[in-house]
Design a protein that fits this description.
Elements (H helix, E strand, L loop, with lengths): L1 E4 L8 H9 L6 E4 L20 E3 L5 E3 L1 H9 L13 H27 L8 H21 L8 H23 L14 H11 L13
């Protein structure tokens, strides 16, 4: 299998953490991909042009984190990250979906920050940040119900890790953002849950090591 994704120094993507958890790293060839580049390996594979994209040995492709995570979760013999049934399945999927939303909303802020400051939309930035804060507050409430590690928690770690890694840079470039914003500040339950979990080996081993 080939995994098309964008390696980021100091950050382990959720798809990398899933591969680490499942023990499937050796079955996947990582392909560094810049989706915004004019020419990249996504052309002719995934018409949406987004990463991550997983190309199976059959030649079929799977696109989108949630689809790839669940496919990989079907290939190993450890405890499943996706609950098979019952109320916990829907809670886990909702938490994973929300973490995806946090990540995607922050990416929108990154893209907006690429504009010259006098061309940025302050009201748009404010709305995106309000959504991010609302999702972080929901995560703080969700912690009390967390049990064994699942895809919802794993995706939450990934989203928080990305936000913490990029906030200072985006905050300096985007109009009206606080570059010192810390998603864990004033969220003690989330901080107490996140900090030891993010130090685990599965969240610290990227597929490609960048200098």
């Amino acid at each position: 299998m080939k995994l098309l994704y964008t390696p980021i120094k100091g950050y382990v993507h959720t798809v990398e953490a899933v591969l680490n958890y499942t023990g499937l790293r050796e079955l996947v060839e990582p392909v560094a991909t810049k989706p915004f580049a004019a020419e990249n390996p996504l052309v002719g594979i995934n018409p949406l042009g987004k990463v991550p994209t997983l190309v199976l040995d059959s030649g079929e492709y799977l696109a989108g984190g949630p689809v790839i995570y669940e496919y990989l979760d079907s290939l190993h013999r450890r405890r499943r990250l996706f609950p098979a049934k019952g109320p916990q399945r829907w809670t886990t999927l909702r938490q994973a979906w929300m973490a995806d939303g946090l990540f995607d909303t922050f990416v929108l802020l990154i893209i907006e920050s690429w504009r010259p400051k006098d061309q940025q939309r302050a009201d748009y930035i404010e709305r995106c940040m309000a959504k991010i804060i609302a999702m972080l507050d929901q995560m703080e409430r969700d912690v009390a119900g967390y049990g064994r590690l699942d895809i919802g928690q794993m995706r939450t770690v990934g989203a928080l890790q990305f936000l913490r890694l990029k906030m200072a840079q985006v905050g300096q470039a985007a109009v009206g953002l606080d570059a010192t914003f810390d998603p864990l500040a004033s969220r003690p339950a989330l901080a107490a849950w996140y900090q030891p979990l993010a130090r685990k080996k599965i969240f610290r081993e990227p597929l490609l090591r960048l200098s």
